[in-house]
Design brief:
2 domains; 14 helices; 312 residues; mainly alpha
Length: 312
């Protein structure tokens, strides 16, 4: 039986770019029968053969590759998060790891080139040290990311979210795609410009062209008024806002809410995060102060001890 109330919804979702299979799955999750859903879909779409056959629908869909994922999540986030709704943590973890390694390798290449230009004799040692630092930093960064997402997920659940930890993880990782993309793009662009024409990117030349404080101050002043500087700032702002919008859409959809709910969750998260940082900072300060006082008292005690009289 055709459900007339679903017809506008189906047409609207098709207009928004959703595939019929994804729309069908969403309707079935609301409790409608398969027969009513198929009849309504075919009626709304105007053709009896628009939906795949039962055999085709039972066949697993081809998984999206990393570049297809990046393109879809950036330009069609609603469709993308509907597609990955049942995805586990694994694929998104690999996705994040690939981009992290790519950014790390790119950063090491740029840094290695700079070190070689400044001091070829010591460049190799410093590059090896940087590589070891990256090998340690990547696992620590991943662990930190899991901890951050764990806090965010807890807040999302307390605010009425229905998703799992995997959903929160997917929202943040896939939502960061614009930032990943623009970071890679800007690094490549400015690295090329720095090699070809360093003066075109003044703030990149500050530490490498002169040791004179006055000249560095002049370079810094010109950097803040250069076109390249404001281009960089503009692109960074666009990347941040783009990633924020995608993340909010993903977090809301995967938790059965909307983007405004996700925005509220993120605001609460940042408040809680800042409180945690303040508490940890205070604890570290107290510990360091206690260690300093203990060492100072020990030194004062040692200095105050009167040596025994000499033997006669």
């Amino acid at each position: 039986m055709i459900q007339q109330g679903l017809v506008p919804y189906i047409k609207e979702q098709v207009k928004n770019g959703y595939k019929p299979v994804a729309i069908r799955a969403a309707i079935l999750r609301q409790g409608y029968s398969q027969v009513d859903t198929d009849d309504t879909m075919n009626y709304a779409l105007g053709a009896a053969n628009v939906l795949p056959s039962p055999t085709e629908m039972s066949t697993p869909q081809k998984k999206m590759g990393i570049f297809e994922k990046a393109e879809t999540v950036m330009f069609h986030p609603g469709l993308f998060f509907e597609e990955v709704k049942d995805e586990k943590v694994g694929p998104s973890f690999v996705y994040n790891l690939i981009f992290t390694i790519l950014l790390t390798v790119l950063a090491l290449a740029v840094k290695g080139f700079d070190l070689y230009k400044q001091s070829p004799s010591t460049a190799m040692i410093l590059i090896i040290a940087s590589v070891f630092g990256a090998l340690i930093g990547i696992p620590l960064g991943i662990a930190f990311l899991f901890a951050i997402i764990g806090i965010l997920h807890l807040i999302a659940k307390l605010c009425g979210g229905h998703g799992k930890f995997a959903d929160t993880y997917k929202a943040l990782v896939y939502g960061s795609t614009p930032t990943f993309f623009f970071t890679i793009l800007l690094t490549i662009i400015f690295s090329i410009v720095k090699v070809v024409s360093p003066e075109a990117v003044p703030w990149m030349a500050i530490n490498s062209t002169s040791t004179d404080p006055a000249q560095q101050a002049a370079l810094l002043s010109s950097a803040t008024t250069s076109i390249s500087f404001w281009f960089f700032i503009g692109v960074a702002v666009i990347a941040f806002l783009w990633s924020t919008v995608v993340t909010l859409k993903g977090l809301g959809k995967l938790h059965g809410k909307n983007a405004w709910w996700a925005l509220l969750v993120m605001i609460v998260f940042f408040i809680v995060f800042m409180i945690i940082v303040a508490i940890i900072t205070a604890i570290l300060f107290v510990l360091l102060a206690a260690i300093f006082v203990s060492l100072f008292a020990s030194l004062m005690h040692t200095a105050a001890v009167t040596p025994p009289p000499p033997l006669t």
